[in-house]
Automatic annotation (TrEMBL):
Domain of life: Bacteria
Listed name of the protein: Methionine gamma-lyase family protein
Gene3D superfamilies recorded: Methioning gamme-lyase, C-terminal domain, Type I PLP-dependent aspartate aminotransferase-like (Major domain)
Stored Pfam families: Met_gamma_lyase
Coiled-coil intervals: none
InterPro entries: Met_g_lyase_put (IPR009651), PyrdxlP-dep_Trfase (IPR015424), PyrdxlP-dep_Trfase_major (IPR015421)
Amino acid sequence: MELTGMYEQLGISEKVLKFARETEAALKERFEEIDGVAEYNQLKVIKAMQEARVSDIHFAGTTGYGYNDLGRDTLEEVYARAFHGEDALVRPQLISGTHALTVALSGNLRPGDEILSPVGKPYDTLEEVIGIRDSVGSLKEFGITYSQVDLLPDGSFDFEGIRKAINERTKLVEIQRSKGYATRPTLSVARIGELISFIKSIKPDVICMVDNCYGEFVETLEPTDVGADMIVGSLIKNPGGGLAPIGGYIVGRKDCIERAAYRLTAPGLGKEVGASLGVSQSLYQGLFLAPTVVAGALKGAVFAANLYEKLGFGVVPNGSESRHDIIQAITFGTPEGVIRFCEGIQAAAPVDSFVTPEPWAMPGYDSDVIMAAGAFIQGASIELSADAPIKPPYAVYFQGGLTWYHAKLGILMSLQKLCDAGIINL
Ligand SMILES: *Cc1c(COP(=O)(O)O)cnc(C)c1O
């Protein structure tokens, strides 16, 4: 078959292909389900764009202060409509997910307030933002305190613990949807809704903010559909569709967005300023493509989970469970295993396929880390990428893929490298 020949030219052996074909054949129904979600979300985005009357004029950029930036204002309307919030802040000046979260938090908190995380430790970078790890400029330095309730050992919410932790100073609850690089399960939107209802039944005026990174468009609902006051994320992950070159978003209640905007720019200025330069068109087009891009990434994650599960490796989520984010963890148990896997992901990339990733002492980590990424946008993890700390249990986390076929090639290449190194015998 012509296709087999093409794979062979790229370095994939017939053995690997055959094994992969058998795995893929069993995933028809899963893939159809993923396509169904993408179809719904595609319509949701188109509907939002039509209702906001998106037009050619909105793709023009502004400079300087950015007064009357129609493209920026309309894009924010599109995000608000697509994610069912009252308002939105979607800006290239939100330079990452961590920054968007920082702006949402610091805009809405005042000295004496307390943040509660009812789902355990938040994402690594937030530790310094909040002041869980001391850092210059943290919220802690401004007299904002933090409390945390862990999930119970079986992954369920500790409702009693949460009830006890909510006090008169609790102003904002931070709920992280994706497990990120932790071992807890990712929360479904339905579970987030259940948690928010419980919290609001105790303290109705508390702000429920969801860190939505890696979760956008994985389900047909978003946390704003189940009571979240704010959702926050990065445009170089899911909602940027691989085209956004930079940016973050906050969608939610109008007063929350307004306070965040006063923090991002300046009190009194808020959303009225902030030039979009030339990036608006990429942000529109990326959002338009995001539902199918996320579907491709999800297929890759499900494919990898099934492939490596069949080979006897630990996978989280497992091959058959439902998905609530695009991250896949695979435990190889040896440094060699995670290194070969990352080499395969790198070798399959459209960009920098010729470089060999190596473990290095990355600042902020307590062990060497290996990273594979051959991305068009630096650090974009909606593009096929993988990373692993070189320490037990020697697990690799991988995510993304702008198309299913690229994700598939990356996974096949990883398997090929593991076979070539004699770690796997097919
Ligand atoms: C990626 C991520 C962040 C931070 O985003 P950056 O853009 O890397 O700063 C925060 N929370 C979660 C759950 C994430 O996955």
